[in-house]
Amino acid sequence: MEFKPAKFCPGCGYPIALMLLAKAIEKAGLSKKAVIGLDIGCALLAWDHLPINTFQTHHGRVTSTMLGFKRAKPDSFCVAVTGDGGAYAIGLQNLLHAAKRDEPVFVLVINNTVYGMTGGQSAPTTLKNQKTDTHPEGNLDEPFFGPELLKNLVAAGAFLARTAVNEPKQMQEFFERAIAAQKAGHFSLLEILSFCPTNWRTRGAETIAYLESLKQAFKTGEV
Ligand SMILES: Cc1ncc(C[n+]2csc(CCOP(=O)(O)OP(=O)(O)O)c2C)c(N)n1
Ligand code: SF4
Ligand SMILES: [Mg+2]
To answer: Averaged over 56-65, what is the pLDDT?
Structure first.
């Protein structure tokens, strides 16, 4: 499996998650049937990174675009890749209804706790007291827990989970679970806590420590 050079910042978590996603798709024999939608945000930097067909969609509209594709081509494997802002702010309405209707799409949320592409503004996932460009004295709100919010909406058979880019085994297992959910006709959402050293203004080990600190607030595992 060949990947074109990534356009992400050095140390970004996106290419780690995307590489494991592509490998899980290949392992499941779905490389030809898979279609990946990329929301606006740093997800769009993956447009020619993977040897898998991709769509570029509008900000917050990747879930609805990919569920439309799935309805048109039911034998495809549809993935909607989005940032936390795209999923839980501008795209929340689309996401809630797709989950409630048990649409057979896989939503992959890369949660870096900020609006990464636009310069590190606060997002719904920004932690209380976290300093961002728009909250230099610290965010005032509690963060938003996407998979937990969907829990009471989804049908039996849907898959909801959270992991982190430095948990490759769990990521691999959850990709397999999400693929199985779509094969069985169900919705799935996996949130991956991900490095954004550019906007966190961290370097090296500091970046890993910051991701580890996020796990205190955002519990990993199946929801
Ligand atoms: C309708 C619309 N509103 C705002 C924007 C500007 N915009 C582009 S990316 C982005 C935020 C992306 O944040 P997130 O979804 O968390 O993705 P990340 O870049 O962090 O991976 C915003 C607000 C846009 N492109 N379209
Ligand atoms: S801004 Fe953050 S999320 Fe975007 S490419 Fe750079 S490190 Fe990755
Ligand atoms: Mg983000």
So the answer is: 97
